[in-house]
Amino acid sequence: xxxLILPFILFFFSVILLAGPFSVFSGGFFAGEQRKLLDxxxxxxxxxxxxxxxxTGSSPDREFSSWISSGRLGNVKxxxxxxxxxxxxRHLTDSIKFLTADSPRGISPFIATDLEGGSVNHIxxxxxxxxxxxAKLKNPAQGEVTSRQIAQLLQEAGINMNFAPCADVLTNxxxxxxxxxxxxxxxxxxxxxxxxFILEHDKAGIVPxxxxxxxxxxxxxxxxxxxxxxxxxxxxxxxxxxxxxxKLKRDRLLHAVMxxxxxxxxxxxxxxxxxxRRVVEGLLRRKMHFRGITITDDLEMASSEAYAGGIEQAxxxxxxxxNDLFLVAHSKKKQAFLLRQAPELFRSGVLKExxxxxxxxxxxxxxxxxxxxxxxxxxx
Length: 380
Description:
It is a single chain. It contains 14 helices and twelve strands. It is an alpha/beta fold. The N and C termini lie far apart (about 55 Å).
């Protein structure tokens, strides 16, 4: 009897591993309904779904792995420091998915990276080709080919979320941090090229995260380092910098948005967009009727922590502003602190568990939409 069973088991697992990234780890989560699943989750598990952490090395260490397998961490960010080869990268992403499949709820993870093209490319190894920067793409046909190649590479690597495209309209020629990451100074061109990028990612089942809302193209500073203010008026913001977002929203292609660590004096003179309820809830959700997920830029950035006064306050203020997914990219010590402390913020009533439920539900629905291989779009 054992001789008959063993070949069947080996055949079963070989079929699973060859089936591709969207059928490998879809387990019980995709068979269930998200609201029922939410009702079963502990606060720790809910908090795990709103964090996305980076790690060092070619594979996560034992403690980081235990966060994933226990359900305390639901999403992972891949950097160039994690990539040695294409084969190693696929083994890494598969191992992360296996860990989440073994977690109590079996909820599939967002595995994200930054691959815009040009210098912003966190998937690097000698065997992996590079891609041209946005400014190098001269027409939609070139954009279509490059976007498809990027999406195919990520799909083969087992990555299902890309912090791209960059929809910043480059109105300030002195802007160095955006520079050739932008498709240009014409809002219509930026919209058309970003649309092509998103369509190719949609086909591959990869969540495209449009950035940096509500715009980084007018700045003359690096928001990684300084949460400075820009004086761009409301009319220019709406007609120029928000134009790509508004058109993508109309096309039902705005699934996820990354919010900038920049203060827009015309919108909220006191708070960077990441920490501004006027920007996230007021402008993006109420005025623009956005129903997808919002993602913070790295809360460990010097600009973020300097403004907020530390990582806990950065998380607290970003949550109160209305963000859904919180990126903490580097420090394991800060990550461990947040996994311990964040549940207590909800238990004590400092933050509202009802609002946490709303954020987690949006994330679960997005995972169902993309990671479940469904064809229908979320109402965006």
